[in-house]
Amino acid sequence: MAVINFGGVKESVVTRKEFTLARARKVLAKETLAIIGYGVQGPAQSLNLKENGFRVIIGQDPAFKRDWERALQDGWVPGKTLFDIPEAVRRGTIVQMLVSDAAQRSIWPVVKANLKKGDALYFSHGFSIVYKDQTKIVPPKNVDVILVAPKGSGTSVRRNFLSGAGINSSFAVGHDATGRARERCLAVGIGIGSGYLFPTTFEKEVHSDLTGERGVLMGALAGMMEAQYDVLRKNGHSPSEAFNETSEELTQSLIRLVDENGMDWMYKNCSATAQHGALKWRPIFKKANLPVFKKLYASVMKGIETREVLRDCGRKDYQKLLGAKLDGLGQSEMWRAGAAVRALRPREQAKARSGTAKGTGGRLSN
Predict the structure, then answer these.
(1) Residue 168 pLDDT more than 50?
(2) Residues 169-223: tens digit of each pLDDT
(3) How many structural domains compose the chain?
């Protein structure tokens, strides 16, 4: 493992230099990786593994026609590389649980019934194992239990793989029945295209992940954007101006500077007026948001967030309810204005002229 200084704290991480793709192929040479679920992470991880030279099969319930059809479109062949879930588990030696957390609880009895001694049970989220009192998922003692959690959506995992950038992932071993759990875990992590892997535990992964998604990564980001947009609109600014000052400049300029060299570097490459104002208001926003994040983390630790996920996402009408909420978000003035702004970007206009534009208002499929 490589020792890296992260802000003054030394951590051991696994890079592609220490654990090469060739080594990963050797470790998994006799393994069959069964990807269970072809919704969010399934397509990206399975295609990346396949293109990196691993033996991969898909386990997907044909009743979920959209995911089944997507698997067919991606080249998986029924009876050869595409099976129903019980058959895929029987054929696999590393069973990758990549259906939604709520669905994992539903399919667990059939997965457990078809696991074999020496198999590895793989997760990309600590949810089901950590909150086993809610999910009832308790793996048998004769299988490895491992985790690789990419720090990005399925779309990002695939895009970064195709571009050669890779994506960072955390890894953990929950149970080592074979003596090979760690090597199997790291080999799959390299196989899906991880840039580097950092150690965690199932508990730490789910606590940080649930906080991050509900916080800065998605929930807080969207909420703060909407708040600023509303204030600008109520004070007479046009939708175009409000959106550009709230989202477009962030996503097309500033966040890219942060990505390149950090927040301080972004500040240094902005105007003196922007620097001064940002440095003044940063601690004010931190003070205002700190109590909210403490409340959020406490809700995660108490199992409130997971209980609500299982309750709501397991409903038969959940997709209908979800669609209504997402349509409400997408059809709000702010994001309709965003669609118009995106359509005016030079590259989008070039696509439109060449006849390759796919629209500007749709959500990316993961």
Answers:
(1) yes
(2) 999 999 999 999 999 999 999 999 998 999 999 999 999 999 999 999 999 999 9
(3) 2
150 found inside a domain:
yes
Residues 6+ apart with CB under 8 A from 63: none
Please tell me whether residues 226 and 334 are part of one structural domain. yes
Please name which of 8, 354, 75, 17 lies closest in space to residue 194, comparing C-alpha atoms.
Answer: 17
Q: Extract the tokens encoding 329.
A: 């978000």
Name the residue range of residue 181's domain.
Answer: 2-200
Final residue of a structural domain among 200, 233, 254: 200
**328, containing H or E segment:** helix 318-330
Of 125, 175, 207, 276, which is the active-site residue? 125
Distance from the Cα of residue 203 to its chain's centroid: 17
DSSP bridge pairs for 96: 35, 122
Q: Are residues 58 and 154 in the same domain?
A: yes
List the one residue out of 265, 269, 255 whose CA is nearest residue 225.
255
| CATH number of residue 73's parent domain | 3.40.50.720
Residue 111 in contact with residue 136, Cβ under 8 Å?
A: no
Give the DSSP letter string of 169-219: EEEEEEE-SSS-HHHHHHHHHHHTTEEEEEE--HHHHHHHHHHHHHTTTTH
Domain end marker among 142, 165, 200:
200
77 and 192 share one domain: yes
Are both 220 and 158 inside the same structural domain?
no
Residue 118's region, left for phi above 0, alpha for psi from -120 to 50, else beta, is left
The token duo for 235 is 């004070």
Q: Which of 1-5, 297-301, 356-360, 362-366 has the lowest mean pLDDT?
A: 362-366
**Statement to judge: residues 44 and 105 lie in one domain:** yes
Instruction: Indicate if 207 belongs to the active site.
Output: no
